[in-house]
């Protein structure tokens, strides 16, 4: 089965990405404790807000359209247009969120007001956009082994910078090293891409601005994820820190970050293969229906076994990835894991809506999901305290999954 073969080819890069993330967690847990986990999660969430539309909108539209273009001139033009559009969106998003959240790290004692730090932050996000766009080219071309090598290289760069920051000490230096790793990784991939593909690039077409319309629907869908996903997560975490403190929030976030790691693995392996596969078959209903069924037959049993094993190893994983002080965070796991299982199944069905460019439907279900999450937190908070966030996560994806099954019922029958 092509899906399994292609997924296996991405495993090296995914493993490297997960190891890099584990290394990041371990550094902040060992040297800065639960408050450090709260901080790095908050910083990564802020960065993901800035890159959400370029990475989840522009890049997804790029993959969707790349394989249908007939020649290298048009493909180069789409690549150039995608980058410049991403850069414009980044500047607008950065300016807006700088006004909305000017003091978003002050609770941690991190200085972000200097011009130097702001420029470093912006350069890091540009580096992330370059990384994602160049890796998207490999996904669209179905060069999954090269995609894995790229991820491996980026993970090594991040670990090198973080390891070096420990020599200087302090959480501020660790955050700055994390940002520098994204800048360096982006520049390194650009250099490799120019060396490897210079004869296939029509350089004059990189300045094209003629391909915005095919990307517009994907941008609106990514905007909905930004508003109803990443921004909601950012605000809920800030609320938790303010109400319960950085340490308890860090315990909850330690489980969320563990969740982020295997969801990242899932998206990297399955998303990088499944979405291009769906995009190729989008105009062949019967072939698409067969492909989706085959994927679900493989994934659902694997996911069920995975989460049962994960829960059984819960305390050991918390000691391994963090420290013994995080063992009490296991109480969040049942709700988090049930929600994550349903979320993973939901992501596959949401990919189908995205590939079909059902923009209004996609935005509506994102708004529905966010509304359920906030309502559940409001209802649960007085009775369950900080546990209400994990419980709300579970209920949110239970209803989200059921809605997506209904919307894709013709493909699942």
Automatic annotation (TrEMBL):
Q: What is this protein called?
A: O-antigen translocase
Xref: PANTHER family: O-ANTIGEN TRANSPORTER-RELATED (PTHR30250:SF11), PST FAMILY PREDICTED COLANIC ACID TRANSPORTER (PTHR30250)
InterPro entries, per the entry: Poly_Biosynth_Transport
Segments traversing the membrane: 27-55, 76-97, 117-140, 152-171, 177-197, 218-241, 261-283, 295-313, 333-353, 360-380, 386-407
Tell me the membrane topology, using the record's own terms.
Answer: Multi-pass membrane protein
Protein localization:
Cell membrane
Query: Which key words tag this protein in UniProt?
Result: Cell membrane, Membrane, Transmembrane, Transmembrane helix
């Amino acid at each position: 089965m092509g899906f399994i073969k292609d997924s296996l080819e991405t495993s090296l890069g995914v493993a490297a990405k997960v190891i890099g993330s584990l290394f990041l967690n371990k550094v902040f847990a060992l040297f800065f404790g639960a408050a450090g986990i709260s901080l790095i999660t908050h910083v990564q969430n802020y960065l993901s807000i800035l890159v959400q539309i370029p990475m989840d909108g522009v890049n997804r539209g790029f993959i969707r359209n790349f394989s249908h273009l007939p020649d290298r001139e048009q493909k180069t033009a789409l690549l150039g247009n995608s980058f410049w559009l991403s850069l414009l969106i980044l500047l607008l998003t950065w300016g807006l969120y700088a006004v909305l959240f000017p003091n978003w790290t002050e609770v941690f004692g991190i200085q972000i007001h200097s011009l130097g730090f702001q420029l470093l932050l912006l350069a890091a996000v540009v580096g992330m956009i370059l990384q994602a766009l160049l890796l998207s080219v490999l996904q669209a071309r179905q060069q999954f082994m090269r995609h894995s090598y790229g991820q491996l290289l980026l993970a090594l760069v991040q670990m090198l910078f973080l390891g070096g920051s420990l020599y200087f000490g302090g959480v501020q230096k660790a955050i700055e090293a994390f940002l520098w790793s994204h800048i360096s990784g982006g520049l390194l991939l650009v250099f490799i891409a120019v060396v490897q593909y210079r004869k296939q690039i029509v350089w004059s077409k990189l300045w094209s601005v003629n391909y915005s319309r095919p990307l517009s629907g994907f941008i609106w869908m990514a905007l909905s994820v930004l508003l109803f996903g990443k921004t909601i997560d950012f605000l809920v975490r800030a609320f938790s820190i303010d109400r319960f403190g950085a340490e308890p929030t860090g315990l909850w976030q330690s489980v969320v970050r563990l969740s982020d790691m295997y969801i990242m693995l899932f998206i990297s392996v399955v998303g990088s293969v499944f979405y291009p596969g769906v995009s190729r078959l989008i105009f062949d209903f019967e072939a698409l229906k067969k492909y989706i069924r085959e994927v679900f037959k493989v994934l659902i049993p694997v996911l069920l076994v995975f989460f049962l094993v994960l829960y059984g190893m819960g305390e050991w994983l918390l000691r391994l990835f963090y420290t013994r002080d995080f063992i009490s965070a296991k109480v969040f796991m049942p709700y988090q894991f049930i929600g994550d299982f349903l979320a993973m199944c939901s992501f596959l069905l949401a990919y189908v809506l995205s590939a079909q460019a059902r923009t209004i439907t996609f935005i509506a279900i994102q708004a529905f999901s966010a509304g359920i999450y906030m309502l559940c937190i409001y209802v649960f908070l007085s009775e369950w305290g900080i546990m209400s966030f994990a419980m709300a996560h579970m209920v949110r994806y239970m209803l989200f999954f059921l809605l997506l099954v209904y919307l894709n019922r013709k493909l699942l029958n």
